[in-house]
Amino acid sequence: MSSSNPLRDPADRRLPRIAGPSGLVIFGVTGDLSRKKLMPAVYDLANRGLLPPGFSLVGFARRDWEHEDFAQVVHNAVKEHSRTPFREEVWQQLIQGMRFVQGTFDDDDAFERLRGTIEELDKAQGTGGNFAFYLSVPPKSFPVVIQQLKKHGLADQSSGSWRRAVIEKPFGHDLRSAEELNAIVHEVFGSDQVFRIDHYLGKETVQNILALRFANTMFEPIWNRSYVDHVQITMAEDIGIGGRAGYYDGIGAARDVIQNHLLQLLALTAMEEPASFDADALAAEKTKVLGAVRLPRDAGVPFYLRTGKRLGRRVTEIAVVFQRAPHSPFDTTATEELGSNAIVIRVQPDEGVTVRFGSKVPGTSMEIRDVSMDFAYGESFTESSPEAYERLILDVLLGDANLFPRTEEVELSWKILDPIERYWDEHGTPAQYPAGTWGPVEADDMLERDGRSWRRP
Ligand code: BG6
Q1: Which of 147, 208, 248, 402 is most enclosed, with most CB atoms within 10 A?
Q2: How many CB atoms lie within 10 A of CB 259?
Q3: How far is 245 from 352, CA to CA, in rounded Å?
Q4: Please, how many CA atoms are within 13 Å of residue 231, restricted to the half-sphere of its CB?
Q5: Where residue 4 falls among pLDDT bands split at 50, 70, 90?
Q6: From CA 209, how far away is CA 222, in angstroms rounded?
Q7: CA 403 – ligand 1 centroid, Å
Q8: Is 186 known to be catalytic?
Q9: Which are the contacts of 332, defined by CB distance < 8 A and separation ≥ 6?
């Protein structure tokens, strides 16, 4: 750490989490993701003292911008979307390392200019040759950018510095295309250089699944097929597709969020305890789960997944629903209002965990009704949760791969989805539903056939 860094207290628990000399190059810097998430996340990290003093941010795009125009765009994005307060002194430091490279992805001169910019930053900002390349670009552009990085020596780590590729989803549109893309990526970057983004893994509440399950003794003993009846994973959004109709119509909801976010939630919910939280150990357990998912359900514990835009409410949750008690000493009238016990991991927006169970209603007779115990982040912690992209960008700079899906996980997830997509191609996709409702009746029918029903969060 440089002596100019104000964080000198050796007891400061952020110390091991401060990135070393480095920079980030964003391809697709004019896109929504970059403006709403990536640029604000970089600022928030700087504001929290987690970036090195000479940290550099390079934008690459077709626009005819000077460095100052790019800095102004970042400034606006930060003012509008960053999580932490704007501080002029942080901004003034950050702006020192901002550069813009104008060009298209097939433009060799532009990639040479990028190489020159990185060399210049190494001298001016002390970035030490350590750069992450963030591909926030349409999937069709992944191969050309990756190949250009190779061609212009930008993926080369032989001088002892590191080079990493950060790849946004969608990673392919089926198993075959994902395999092809993996082959292209790995021709240029080693597996420890590739960071595939699934921003759900960067969410605090998603990381908390591991804490809840493996740091406590009261949940895990019943977290198995002897006690769990089924699991419901809901990712409901109230927003529509906005300006993304082209992207969304081309891929649909399942490719957009089930192949990645929901299957990762499934894997974290169903996996066995890893030997450690080492990236390899975690990936090994998630891979076992993804490889064991079967369609249609047989005798195992069913996992029901649902997602959609313009639903009744924005809510993402995992509900682990338990079997009924095997023997009830109560009159049936006493338990008429008793539902199934459940542990609900509230991923967002009301972050926390709910445990639902039955309790006697005060009075002269035995009547049992559902009650719940709630843990809410807002009430239990004074610390606010970082944005997913803050955590993930920092982990890329630290070379920490725990929260990034591996090649095998991506491919196994497509293996699960492909037959469903094929079925929809042949038989039509699920029926439409009116905006603001909880989706098509087919979704309710599916659970009803199994004698179950969806929660209404
Ligand atoms: C993205 C999807 O990965 O996740 C979007 O492409 C979706 O369609 C978004 O809206 C939801 O993210 P979050 O963090 O708001 O739940």
Answers
A1: 208
A2: 27
A3: 32
A4: 24
A5: very low
A6: 15
A7: 17
A8: no
A9: none
pTM score, two decimals?
0.95
Q: What six digits make up the tokens of 322?
A: 């338990």
The H or E element that residue 301 is part of is none
Per residue in 316-338, pLDDT tens? 999 999 999 888 888 888 998 89
- Eight-state DSSP code of residue 57: E
Domains in the chain: ranges and CATH: 14-168 (3.40.50.720), 202-387+406-449 (3.30.360.10)
Give CA–CA dist 292/266, Å, rounded.
12
Q: What is the pLDDT of residues 67-112, one digit of tens each?
A: 999 999 999 999 999 999 999 999 999 999 999 999 999 999 999 9
Q: Residue type for 389, please?
A: Y
How far apart, in whole angstroms, are the C-alpha atoms of residue 151 and residue 108? Answer: 9
Asked if 326 contacts 294 with a C-beta cutoff of 8 angstroms, the reply is no
Cβ atoms 122, 129 nearer than 8 A: yes
Q: Give me the amino acid identity at 360.
A: K
Question: 367 in ligand 1 pocket by Cβ < 6 Å?
Answer: no
Helix segments in 293-354, DSSP class H: none
The rounded Å distance from CA 7 to ligand 1 centre is 35
**Once rounded to an integer, what is the mean pLDDT over residues 290-310?**
90
Q: Is the CB–ligand 1 distance for residue 204 below 6 Å?
A: no
Judge if the beta carbon of residue 416 lies within 6 A of ligand 1. Answer: no
Backbone angles phi, psi at 235, to 5 degrees: -125, 95
